[in-house]
Design goal:
This protein is mainly alpha-helical and about 140 residues long. It has six helices and no strands.
């Protein structure tokens, strides 16, 4: 279970990072994509949904209490939460590539510095979308 859950959580995190970057362009499309992907990834399994909700709460607490959030920090946290040794090489390659792409897109749109108040609020909103989708699974 834990081996399967980590790549799924990484995928959700990657989607949330990409959605943050796209928010200004199409909020409703980004919300639908994030919630759809969250529901697909969680596969109607309440244990997975509960763990995602815990991680969302932890992430929101951090971004709402600390103003020194950077893209590099978010990317490092995503990578640190993955037990790379428990994944096969194909999953390692895929998840690593998705994280790299999400980080590159965020750096292009946001830059290297601290996330602004608006950007942190956008990230919190995307985390809320993930939480709402996870809450649907009972």
């Amino acid at each position: 279970m834990r081996t399967i859950l980590q790549p799924l959580l990484a995928a959700c995190l990657c989607l949330s990072l990409i959605a943050c970057a796209a928010l200004a362009e199409r909020e409703s499309s980004a919300k639908l994509a994030v919630q759809f992907a969250t529901l697909k990834v969680l596969s109607n399994q309440p244990e997975r949904a509960e763990r995602v909700r815990e991680l969302v709460a932890e992430g929101k607490e951090y971004i709402e209490s600390d103003t020194s959030v950077t893209v590099a920090f978010l990317a490092d946290q995503a990578r640190a939460r993955i037990n790379w040794g428990s994944l096969d090489l194909a999953d390692q390659l895929l998840i690593g590539a998705v994280l790299d792409e999400a980080e590159a897109e965020l750096r292009k749109r946001i830059g290297e510095g601290l996330l602004s108040e608006d950007q942190r609020l956008q990230l919190a909103m995307v985390l809320d979308w993930i939480d709402t989708a996870a809450l649907m699974i009972r």
